Amino acid sequence: MSITLYNYVLSGNCYKVRLLANLLNIKYETVAIDFHPGKEHQSEPLLKLNPAGTLPILVANGQVFTETQAMLVWLAQQHDPSCSWWPINNANQLAAVVQWLGFSSRLSATIGELRLHSMLNNTINIDSAQHGAKICLRELESHLTEQRIIGQQWLTGDQPTIADVACFPYTALSPDAGIEHDEYPLIRGWLHALRSLDNFLTMPGIHELHELGSTIRDKT
Amino acid sequence: MTTEPIGLAQDLAPKGVMRAQIGHADMAIWRSTSGVISAWENRCPHRGMRLSHGFVRGESLACAYHGWHYDCDAKCHYIPAHPELEPPSTIRPAIYSVVEKAGIIWVNTAGTATPAELPDRLLGLRTITMQCDLSTAAHAIASAAQTNAALFNGSVNDINSDQTILSLANPNGTDGICILFQQPLAQSTVIHVLAHDSYSQNELIAISRWCESVRREAERIMQSSNKVEPAK
User: Fold this and answer.
1) What is the distance between the alpha carbons of residues B32 and B23, in angstroms, rounded to a whole number?
2) Please, what are the domains in chain A?
3) I need a labelling partner for B60 at 20 to 30 A (CA). Which of A66, A219, B46, B109 fits?
4) pLDDT of A163-217, one tens digit each?
5) Which residue segments constitute the domains of chain B, with CATH numbers given?
6) What is the value of ipTM here, to two decimals?
7) CB-CB: which of B16, B57, B126 is closest to A217?
8) What is this structure's pTM?
9) B212 and A142: CB-CB below 8 Å?
């Protein structure tokens, strides 16, 4: 089996794919793309692969995926025999996962765009993106509140799914876009839970939780 | 300075760090792995980095900048760049009095924290931040309590007669929810909502959604009043 990810290390969407692959112990190759300043994703060789000119691109056994959510579905369906990350045996939960995959696009379109503006000075409608980001984070916080009321820690149940993976990066990276997590205690708890998973993977702006394996410095 | 509620105890799990502001006091509140809670000035004595960005390591908080470790007494006990050094005992952030009672974290920035007396059998539901002033938030809450007969009977009691804790009775007239107002910031008001333990899960979800409706209404009122009276 050959899996190749056309990757940009600072991209939240590329990170979703790397994160899930790591969580599921999937081996893959990466091809580093000079997104900035080279705009290599909009060069002819990459446009042949993905006419939309976006990243990531995943080539799995010859099949080309250009939508992040499809990559997550493929990785989970291929490599998660427990069917917990992509819960195909539970119609209600499966639909909820797809619902939150859609929600993750709204995070990309708001927080993700604000972050690109902060980092690369891309031209965007800042007021509209900030308003949309606030609506998204409030919706997520309220949903996690209701999940806690019914005793569930994750977005769609008591186990994480690709929905959690898809919504995690831009929520975690919102401080890059000027939006702190101070107002969102349930979101903070959910981010912490995801970062605590075995085989969690970091990216610039999303650090590991240092308490793991660092107790040699704890003199108490 | 009074004792202020700054969050729900359950929203700060072991190994968690959060930021809170009361007046001009900016603080880092953290819980050690064993559960000890601390509230400190949000400033590393080394380079002034916000300690709320730090990491909990066992019974210490480590600054995110250069990793200086502070124990639960706020004493610096380890500096990674000088591993053999015993740091002077004077290196410590300012500490605030913090206690947990009735599912709430209470902080006093200028004295010993003495929590308000609350009715029994309340459980933390959620903390919610509204982009409005306190009186607009209180007004929106009181009027929304009149119009939701399924959840409340419309009576709103001012528990400590200074509009900082409101109690809304449930439809049969007994304890319903308590709303604690944190001392408001310039642009926002933070409320902590506690609900009686007799509510069902569905009712708690309805109360949570009611809070969101109240926030939308309060912010709508605030925005329209700002349009009528531009900032002076």
Assistant:
1) 26
2) 3-79 (3.40.30.10), 91-195 (1.20.1050.10)
3) B109
4) 999 999 999 999 999 999 999 999 999 999 999 999 999 999 998 886 444 444 4
5) 4-108 (2.102.10.10), 122-228 (3.30.310)
6) 0.94
7) B57
8) 0.94
9) yes
